[in-house]
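thread from #wetlab-drylab

HS: before we spend reagent money on co-crystallization trials with NAP, can we at least see a predicted complex? here's what I'd submit
DV: go for it
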Amino acid sequence: MLKPLHSMRKIFENRWVLVTGASSGLGEELAKRLAQHGAHLVLSARREDRLENLAADLRRVNGIDALVIPADLARPDGVERVLAAVRERNVTISHLVNNAGFGSAGAFSELDPQRESAMVELNVGAVVRLTRGLLGPMLRAGDGGVLNVASTAGFQPVPFMATYAASKAFVVSFTLALAAELEGTGVRAMALCPGPVQTGFQAAAGFQRPALSFAVLTPNRTIRGALAAYERGEHLYTPGLVNGVQALAARVLPHGLVTWAATRTMRRLGRAPAKLNAKG
Ligand SMILES: NC(=O)c1ccc[n+]([C@@H]2O[C@H](COP(=O)([O-])OP(=O)(O)OC[C@H]3O[C@@H](n4cnc5c(N)ncnc54)[C@H](OP(=O)(O)O)[C@@H]3O)[C@@H](O)[C@H]2O)c1
């Protein structure tokens, strides 16, 4: 087991942290790390069995409290259920981690419209609803914060992943604006912008080929860096050198060039058809 960082313990020890999308990938890694830093956890996602197993492990290994609130966060009533359950149990959330999210890849005109809308509801709607629902007590305490998981896709338009990239652009912009509003309150906000990470994300998004291996990070490396940046009070964190260079390029190069390069990447990953099908 890792030795907890002293300053990280100061932020999280004996505080309640709500982690969405905790049933796999980055969310599961976040929950494990936060438990090592002494946080009590509210874990949410749809797969209840996985959340219950994780909660039981964390209680046993780290001696923390862990609550499971299963919910479909792509539905506004799912988000309401989480907020109501937190209130009913008299738990004050000090830190909110909006991590649940998914992507889809392919020509927009051919993607399932229901799934595209659900993606916006989850990647954007749930972030707004949960943040608005939980920020008040943090402000009253003058302590805590919001960690939103965005993506390097949020720095630029990504053809053949149009809705996903736009949803993450929302998260980046929203978080940076919120961080500025929160200046001086004692409450922090940070957007985590990973590039490709080894999780179930790529399969769920329908990628046929993996991303370039030198750009792919582990969940462990991603979350270790992210929590350290959050602790330092950073507002935006992009893990890994390759992702950092890509993020910078997206900001300084002309839009046309950046979008062209993204199209080429999507072709290589097998998600951009040579020609659009007219039936969409
Ligand atoms: N992996 C990458 O390459 C990468 C890169 C950049 C950004 N990200 C972002 O990182 C975040 C975590 O993704 P991941 O990489 O860890 O992928 P993942 O392993 O597929 O995890 C996604 C998580 O979101 C939850 N989720 C999906 N739909 C949900 C819904 N309708 N309601 C509630 N929870 C839902 C899933 O749980 P259930 O299925 O149990 O509901 C799961 O816990 C996402 O926001 C993603 O956009 C990932």
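DV: Residues 8-268 form a domain with the Rossmann fold fold (CATH 3.40.50.720).
HS: ok that's useful, forwarding to the group
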